[in-house]
């Protein structure tokens, strides 16, 4: 990795670096002054590619980043930061976005926990409505855009009450028949990540993956307790504690809707964010699923599922080869 940018450094003859305000596995986020528009501050999202990768893979990853960044630059929604520029500087690429002032919801959550209080359900649901609007907008694009890293730390509350869904680091454009290279490696934050997003494959990630992360985020905001992650739930279904056991003041409606969104198998979740939004805030009834069902509803995998996945594929094919070899040895005798 190259050293971080220094304060005062100017990129593209325009963006003067003030300070680093975030850091991830593939680069940093910087606060910068736009010297062409006096008084405007922006956030620079940096992407640095793994130099251990073959050059052709890096080039392909870079091309895909530029394509996806161009898609993001066309988005215009009040609950999303506006992408205003894309440029390269040596081996790094940059996405220039609006700088969003205010506190992220993780800091508000931690403050409530320290004070031994819960965030008010009514306030959290007001935020949820805005988050749902942003996700519905992303998912309605052609092709749909999946954020893949919804969590309290990526939700900013601006001083006038507007919520912004920030950090497009793991964004995925669901282009049909297109092999996706994950531009910024990572699977999201484990606490909020659905099981299908593990393992480095995007094959089974779709808009319902965002719905799971959205539900897990609300679980944390409403209880002050992080939900058991999907891997732990898969092994120990009872590890997911119903929300009202932690925060008895919550409504049954809110608990049911959040647990529906957090169903382990994508087919058991709401099909769209709008469905979840209606169950949470509108007049839609949440399906009458038991807590145990919500915890353990991963569908059985077929033989072909195992043969097409890793490491199951390796084990299955190895077993098949060994069986054939033993059969041949028997016949030769």
What does this entry look like structurally?
α7 packs antiparallel against α8. The chain has eleven helices and eleven strands. The chain is 38% helix and 16% strand. It is globular. The strands form three sheets. It has a six-stranded antiparallel sheet with strand order 1-2-3-4-6-5, covered by helices on one side. The protein has a three-stranded antiparallel sheet with strand order 7-9-10. It folds into three domains: 89 residues, Phosphorylase Kinase, domain 1, CATH 3.30.200; 194 residues, Orthogonal Bundle (Transferase(Phosphotransferase), domain 1); 30 residues, no CATH class. With 333 residues, it is α+β, with helices and mostly antiparallel strands.
The count of strands amounts to: 11
- Strand order in space, largest sheet: 1-2-3-4-6-5
The chain-level structural class is alpha+beta
Q: Summarize the amount of helix as a percent range.
A: 25-40%
Described by the principal axes of the CA atoms, the overall outline is globular
In CATH terms, the superfamily of the largest domain is Transferase(Phosphotransferase) domain 1
Mean pLDDT: 82
Features:
3 domains; Phosphorylase Kinase, domain 1; single chain; six-stranded antiparallel beta sheet; three-stranded antiparallel beta sheet; Transferase(Phosphotransferase), domain 1; 333 residues; 16% strand; alpha+beta
């Amino acid at each position: 990795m190259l050293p971080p940018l220094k304060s005062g450094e100017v990129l593209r003859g325009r963006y003067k670096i003030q300070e680093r305000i975030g850091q991830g596995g593939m680069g940093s986020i910087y606060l910068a002054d736009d010297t062409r528009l006096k008084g405007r501050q922006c956030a620079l999202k940096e992407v640095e590619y793994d130099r251990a990768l073959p050059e052709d893979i890096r080039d392909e990853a870079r091309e895909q980043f530029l394509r996806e960044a161009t898609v993001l630059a066309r988005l215009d929604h009040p609950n999303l930061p506006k992408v205003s520029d894309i440029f390269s500087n040596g081996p790094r690429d940059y996405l220039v976005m609006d700088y969003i002032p205010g506190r992220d919801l993780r800091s508000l959550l931690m403050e409530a926990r320290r004070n031994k209080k819960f965030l008010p359900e009514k306030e959290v649901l007001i935020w949820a409505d805005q988050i749902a609007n942003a996700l519905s907008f992303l998912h309605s694009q052609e092709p749909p855009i999946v954020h893949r890293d919804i969590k309290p730390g990526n939700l900013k509350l601006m001083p006038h009450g507007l919520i912004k869904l920030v950090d497009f680091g793991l964004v995925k454009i669901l282009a049909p028949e297109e092999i996706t290279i994950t531009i910024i490696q990572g699977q999201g934050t484990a606490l909020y990540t659905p099981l299908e997003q593990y393992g480095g494959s995007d094959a089974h990630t779709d808009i319902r993956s965002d719905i799971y992360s959205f539900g897990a985020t609300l679980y944390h905001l409403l209880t002050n307790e992080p939900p058991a992650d999907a891997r732990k739930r898969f092994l120990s279904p009872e590890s997911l504690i119903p929300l009202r056991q932690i925060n008895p003041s919550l409504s049954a409606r809110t608990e049911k809707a959040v647990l529906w969104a957090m169903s382990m198998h994508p087919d058991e979740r709401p099909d769209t964010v709008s469905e979840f939004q209606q169950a949470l805030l509108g007049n839609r009834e949440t399906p009458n699923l038991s807590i145990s069902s919500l915890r353990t509803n991963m569908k059985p995998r077929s033989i072909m599922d195992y043969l097409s996945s890793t490491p199951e594929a390796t084990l299955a094919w190895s077993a098949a080869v060994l069986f054939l070899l033993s059969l041949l040895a028997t016949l030769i005798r």
